[in-house]
Model the fold of this input.
Amino acid sequence: MAASSSRSPFMNWARRSLIGNIVLLELTLGPATFVVFCAKAYSDGDLSRGDLVFFAVLSAIGGLATGALFWFGLSRPLLARRKGPRGQ
Done:
């Protein structure tokens, strides 16, 4: 049995494509960032509807940017190294 067969199809897709990296980090980083921002604003006593929209947009953009940076900075180089030198 291959090592990658124990992973879910979603995780296999997420680690091998740019869109997969973005979706994975949007689903993991985005909600966590949103909750932290909302909790901070609520504890300071100045949470408004406009802040909620702003935090949602900021979390979405942050997840998108982090997914792209993660792909170009870590995932793609590791996949290229795993395949070996060109021509083999």
